[in-house]
Amino acid sequence: MTAPLLQIDGVTIDYNTKKGNLRALRDISFDVNKGEIVGIVGESGCGKSTLISTILQLLPQNAEWKKGAINFKGKNLIACSEKEMRDMRGKDISVIFQDPMQSLNPVITIGRQMVDIQHRSTSPYVEKWQKAIDMLSMVGIADAETRLKQHPFEFSGGMLQRIAIAMALMSRPDLLIADEPTTALDATLEVEIIKRLKDLHKEMGCSILFISHHLGVIAELCQRVVVMYAGSVVEFGSVDEIFFNPKHPYTRRLIECDPGHIKERAKRLPTIPGEIPDLTEALEGCIFQERCSEIIAKCKISTPHFVSVGQNHQAACWLNHNQEPE
């Protein structure tokens, strides 16, 4: 059996704050296979951004590595030097960020930025320019050569996101991390960007780690889903298993709150009652217990471990264990 392209094993990260240690990631484990699209979904504050920074080894100074390992193409990223990580970023692992205006320089032409990003290549300037033209055409921007001479402010939000995708794929990376790339776009542009990503994935064959709040986008694009809550993974499985047979109460609540699942008109959209717990405090039992409507006695005293609830489908919830609460 082929080894996963990316394997995250028991990663735990704390942030040192004035209130104490904030447990940003708690024993995170999952993998991404070659050519696979894996979605990560969860509320704001669930640890998605910290997870990306951890993979890229770009954590802030107040972050403290507690335990775990991240293996990419058989190499432990935690043991890599800064030079080794710089060589991998943008080449083997690329990122599409949420807001393209923040990742593109507003005073430099698109063409110069797309040529500059090829700094590792020894190809002549003419070839780099032609590659920039080809990549813009690949993401659906017409008259690419003329557009390369323009600045970011001369493009719409959807076109800027296409340019960001083109730049991220310039080196044909093995892993593309898409950090909520459709959040700032309207519904029509969102559909276009997702279609473009699917086409590029099929053409290039790279693996994609897709982070989003939007369950509809996850269902449309991804093959497997990882559900995160308050720095923990609570459920993971295939798209069909997660959306049609969710086994964790948090996953069910997320799906119920998705506007696409609302059948009747309502003055207020459904929400999950309560708030994410204070991650600087010691938490006993299930991390979702304060907001869960299906809580049992054992949830308050013991942290649930993962149990298989279907083919390649696991959930960390005591309701799925064949035992009575103690």
Q: What are its keywords?
A:
326 residues; alpha/beta; Rossmann fold; 2 domains; 8-stranded mixed beta sheet
Number of helices: 11
CATH top level label of the largest domain: Alpha Beta
**Radius of gyration, rounded?**
21 Å
Helix content percent band: 25-40%
H and E string: EEEHEEHEHHHHHEHEHEEHHEE
CATH superfamily of the largest domain: P-loop containing nucleotide triphosphate hydrolases
Q: Give unreliable regions as ranges.
A: none
Query: What composes the largest sheet?
Result: 8 strands, mixed
User: Taking all residues together, what is the mean pLDDT?
Assistant: 89
Under CATH, the topology of the largest domain can be stated as Rossmann fold
Beta-strand portion reads 15-25%
Query: How many structural domains in the coordinates?
Result: 2
In the CATH hierarchy, the architecture of the largest domain is 3-Layer(aba) Sandwich
The number of strands is 12
Structural class estimated from helices and strands: alpha/beta
Q: Tell me the overall shape.
A: globular
Distance between the termini: 40 Å
Q: Write out the strand line-up for the largest beta sheet, numbering strands in chain order.
A: 6-7-8-3-9-10-12-11
